[in-house]
Amino acid sequence: MAISKGIDKFMARAKELGAPQWIAQQGMELSNLIESGFLQPQSIANKAQITKAKNMYTEALGNKSFRNAQAAKLKSSGTVKTVQPIERPIITPESLQGSIITPVSGDTTVVGQQIEEMFGYSVDGVKVDGGPMFGLKMQDEVIDESNPELRAAWASMEDAANTKQGGIDFIADKTRNPRVIGAYGPMTDIAMNFASPLSEITAKVTQQLDGIPKSVVKQFDAAIREGSGRKVNKKTGKVTYDRKPYPEWVGIESQDAILQLTGNGEFPKEGAGALRKAYMAVSAAKGDAKRGQMNFRDYGVPNRSTIVQEITEPELQGVPKGSMGFSLFDAIPNQSTIPFGDKKYNESYDTLIAGNAKGGHQINYPPEVYAPDMMNYLSQQINKAGKPFSRDEQIGSFMMNPNIYQRADQKWLDGVKTFEEKVLETLKQGGKPALATAGLMSAINSQAGEMEGQYDPTSMSGVLGMTPEMMTAMAQRDALDQQRMADREQRYGQYADDKMMPREQTYSEQLGNYLAGLHYGNDDSRSQAYFAQNISNILDFTPVGSVDALKLGAQQREAGNSFEGWLNSIGGAAEAAIPLAGLGFKYGKKGVQGLMEAF
After folding, report:
1. DSSP 122
2. Which of 290, 314, 363, 470 has minimal Cβ neighbours within 10 Å of its Cβ?
3. Which three-class secondary structure state does DSSP give residue 123?
4. Other CB atoms within 10 Å distance of the CB of residue 571
5. Given its phi and psi angles, is residue 513 left (phi above 0), alpha (psi -120 to 50 degrees) or beta?
6. Which domain holds residue 123?
7. Are residues 174 and 263 in the same domain?
8. Residue 418 falls within a domain, yes or no?
9. Is 443 in the same domain as 584?
10. What stretches of 176-241 show up as alpha helix (H) in DSSP?
């Protein structure tokens, strides 16, 4: 493949640093820049950010360990894993009427995966068995020989499990209703740092890197052992840290490092999760190496975000923190928690909460819809600054407070059903995503002219070929946008337009504006960047990411295939990638590099 003119200077610099041409050339493709942690997905149409990413990548090629790591990654065929599908039964809101709902927060880890290889390195079958589907996976597992009918619904560390079970007991007693439902609420992906698979994969790859300077290894280990942000209270002498030190850390080169991170062998399970959080904070640091700051990415340490995406439950990709309804279980008041003992139900935790996993709802609900009384109560609470809780503080509180609950009464059911019906009607009107090129293009041409800056999300499926999951997500986001806008208008009156946060339009309207501009020939680089940023969130719901979609479209054009080629190359499971695949086809040239030159 010929080297495009725009990257000649990078290739020349890479050669000066001793990097093989094939590594530099393939490594500077956008997909690799993102997977290696040099470029954010939302910046795929930002020429300045791309240039910056290529500069950083090229300089990193001066490190032997990074070159070796990139060679392994680029030669590999991607992640190798086995998957055991877990069916999630659909539960209707009506079936919960009369119960008491309490939120149960957790990370978004997928269940039933075993990762064999990542980034071109073997990771010896890391099991990914946590997250909201854990209870469904455990349905056939006897957890108490004295009570063979008892099943596990949740897992956590002993203290956290006992606290949550205590909350279930409290709620049942206070409401005099033993029918308590645990409703999962996803935490942000930072919560993944506690889960074992992320640090285990990262450490196993890092241990195999060839050529890391001893000084860098020393800096890495010292950062974990010494912590960061040490402060001493002058009055009390109390010492605090922003990141807690772990002087007992055995070191990344030790054969016991994995055992310590997972709490196995002679290492305690208690405290291992906190160590994993510290380990990932150091591993993922991306400071300025020239100023002596930590930046282990440039030495081949694998990109955290790429691993997170691999081990995240696909249906929860991009779902906002605090959303409710994906996973539910019947809790058992006054039931003792159950230690794992010598059984490895999950590598991250050590204690089970008993209950019966039910499945989840058809859609995810914003907490304002699913727990309105709870959120209303929290909105009236005052923070340390003397101000009412912000929405983030409300969500943080209900995710951490074990005693908070929502009655699933008729009022609750009416609100949930109204929201659900709106979302499902959106899906119904959108119909089956358009697979025929003629249908797709006619929808764009006929409907874009009628937008006039606004767009009906119910017809978004015909225009963009979106999956039902994405339509659901868009409808939910639109509902939240509309609620925020209404709240702002009520609060600020005639000045609302100056105070709208975070936007004055709904998500669907923003996408509609782009399509209208495209229809009328407004296809400049700024519009492209705006569109790429807006659509990147919903593209997270598909197995084909933004860059892959662009690349597929460009490859179809370069291969001389018809306009239908880029559409058919995506496949039914990833129809949401159609818009960017179309852009890739349009700008073709030399793959994604050609696309970026066109910008």
Report:
1. E
2. 290
3. strand
4. 14
5. alpha
6. 83-194+316-408
7. no
8. no
9. yes
10. 196-207, 214-226
Matching residue, tokens 């597992």: 141
Is pLDDT of 7 > 50? yes
CB atoms within 10 A of CB 531: 22
- Same domain (yes/no): 529, 386: no
Residue 182, H or E segment: strand 180-186
For residue 50, give every residue at least 6 positions away whose Cβ sits within 8 Å of its Cβ, in sequence order, or none.
30, 33, 39, 43, 44, 596
Backbone angles phi, psi at 138, to 5 degrees: -90, 10
Give the SS3 label for residue 590: coil
How do residues 61-120 score in pLDDT, each as one tens digit?
Answer: 999 999 999 999 999 988 999 988 899 999 999 999 999 999 999 999 999 999 999 999
- The structure tokens 């009156």 sit at 493
pTM for the model = 0.72
pLDDT tens-digit profile of 557-575? 666 665 444 444 444 334 4
Distance, first Cα to last Cα, the chain: 21
Q: Strand, coil or helix: what is 295?
A: strand
Rounded to the nearest integer, the mean pLDDT of the chain is: 78
Are 494 and 436 within 8 A, CB to CB? Answer: no
DSSP state string for 51-111: HHHHHHHHHHTTSHHHHHHHHHHHHS-S-EEEE------B--GGGGTT-EEEEEEE--B-E
* Cα–Cα–Cα angle for 306, 311, 317, rounded to 5 degrees: 80
Structural domain total, the chain: 4
Looking at the structure, tell me whether residues 594 and 449 fall in a common domain: yes
- Token pair 């691999």 is found at 310
- Give yes or no: residues 99 and 175 share one domain: yes
